[in-house]
Design goal:
By secondary structure, the protein is an all-alpha fold. It has five helices and no strands.
Length: 132
Amino acid sequence: MKLTPPNLALTIAFAITFFATGASLWPLEYSEVSLPNSLYGIGLIVLVASAAAVRALTVVGLWKTMAVLGLAPAAAVFARVIVETTLDPTSHNLWPLELVIAVGVGFPLALLSALLGGLVGPWLRDQIAKRG
């Protein structure tokens, strides 16, 4: 992926979403984590805002936005799995299921938000051009 300004915006949006999701997921004790409930919070709010903003303000396509930002919650879950299985190899014996759950939460939200951003985008860019 060439790092053009739209791709840079998508990369930054992914990083912000990844860390926002992780910020609410990573401090939890292993026994406190219950997916998908543990994902609900600021991370998904940031996902919705990021997907809509990337589509509204850049020329990144719908499917690319959904694929990249929809994977951010799964990446945060996977980061947790890697750290915790390094410390205790017997934990997370169902980690593939954890990833499927995280993708099942992230993709639909990213798709709906990207669709919304794509609908609002032309109007928003027109308003910005008129004022600029």
